[in-house]
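P.,

For your records, the input lines for the assembly:
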Amino acid sequence: MNSTHNKKPEGSPAQYSRAVFENALDGMIVIDEMGLIQSFNPAAEDVFGYSAKEVMGKNVKMLMPEPFHGAHDGYLKNYLQTGERKIIGIGREVTGLRKDGSEFPLDLAVSEFTVSDQRMFLGIVRDISERHAAERDLIRSRENLKAAQRITHLGSWHWEIESGHLTWSDEIYRIFDMDPEKFESTYENFIHAIHPDDRASVEAAISASVENKAPYSIEHRVVRPDGEIRIVHEQGEVELDEAGNSFCMNGSVLDITEHKEAERLKNEFVSTVSHELRTPLTSIHGSLALLVSGAVGDLDEKKKKLIDVAYSSSDRLIRLINDLLDAEKFGSGKMTLDIRAYDIDPLIDQAISLNQAYGEKYNVSIKRTDGAARVRVAVDHDRFAQVMANIISNACKFSHEAGVVEVATQTLPGKVKISITDHGVGIDKSFHKKIFQQFTQADASDHRRAGGTGLGLSISKSIVEQMGGKITFVSEQGKGSTFSLEFPVLDTQLG
Amino acid sequence: MSEPSLSKILYVEDDHDIQVVAQMALETVAGFTVSICSSGEDALEKAEAFSPDLILLDVMMPGMDGPTTLSRLREIDALATVPAVFMTAKVMPSDVERYKELGAADVISKPFDPMTLGEQVKKIWSLSLER
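Structure tokens returned:
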């Protein structure tokens, strides 16, 4: 290795120089004092599209577009007279002219040398169109990103944890209504711009994220300098160094103020409408209930039939409104549960006895098929009853005439499973995926099965999950279905 | 002294149709004597003379609402401890707590079942006497 390295190149120095000239990756052009081309290497041929033969002895200005073309003679003359340099010995970015007439950006470095008292200039040229195009693309995509951020009110940031240096995109400055010239974007200043009541939770989320190396997502308020409050959804994630330590964070800030306001108006609307609907329904349903009961006198059979229809329809309307309100509460995160510890067995027995009458309507009996589970669970009493009623009533509805709905419990490690099984029509496979979605109902052309709101299972799922549980089902068409509720067990009941 | 019993109910409700249903439920079905007031002001005028065993109030009424009416009725010595029940179509768990803090024994949600309204009221009344 060393011996070859130290070996002098073979051949004469002139041959050696020629080889360098021929093989250089950059274009090399030698001109004389008059500006006439004396040498033109293959790389230069590639750059300009001329062969050496075509340019030899011609003025180098043929490789320049106007206005450089016209100015070159003067420039060279001026240099020779005054020594004032514009390019020579400096290098700069100029525009070149190819044989095909196209112009392109060119990096040019010119040096001067003397051969046999003859002043010569060597120009080294490199076509930088690709670099230019890449720069243009970069600028365009940066502008594009800025526009997208401005349009969607989504800002982005980068935070170097150690130094505390925080970089904000323009849109964050707009969301926070801060002047990029005056506002120093540091972590402390950012925290200071947050609503005082939200600061602790934001700081906790960020430090947990740094510590656990996990992303965070939080909604908080920002107080603008003029006092206006904006609501933002902020998300961030840490970037790890090679040793696996958090060293910086990247994140986004989305202004959701308008979205929140729209949501609030929608909630208010639903709540108001439901109240307005309930008031007349109270008198309709109440009047019909009094008639149906016979408390205000007997009705003949035809009248009773019509009143029954009106009564059950008004009942359905009430359930629909209640379900809509529940769905709305879960949708807006406003559902509050009153969770307490209960022995599970009485809850299940109550649910069965409360739904017995419903079962009788379908000539279906509801039975508990095993002994007591003897565990306690943390649930909302009324909501648990609502879920059980929903599932038991579905089981009755989809049972065959004189069928049996079985309720069983099973204790598993740390949890208890309640299963409600019917031996009815079962659920079509194509419907399995949609079963917990809102406003989905299996084809209910059969009168026996009509009358649901299409919200029951979706609400039940939300309730069960908010109580820390899980709802699942298995079903085979023609054989029946089993819906299971799983809840974490608090403790085992003694005795 | 005889056992206290529930017989007279002061019922404050602005909606005429609901008045009709509730009155029938409480009088015809449950057998109480009901005095109906169409507004909070009306209730303040009639209440003392009627001397109710229980006060039933709608929450949302134009003018004086249920909670305000109740607090004004409480200022009348004879009515200071009479059990009161709110009726509302807008029941939120947080509201129930608030109404109880205002001195209501319980809250009945609308739509109510006229066949069981009387029993419901009686149950609340008995529980409030135990306290």
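Two observations worth noting. The CA atoms of residues 173 and 180 of chain A lie 6 Å apart. The domain at 2-127 of chain A is CATH 3.30.450.20 (Beta-Lactamase).

Regards
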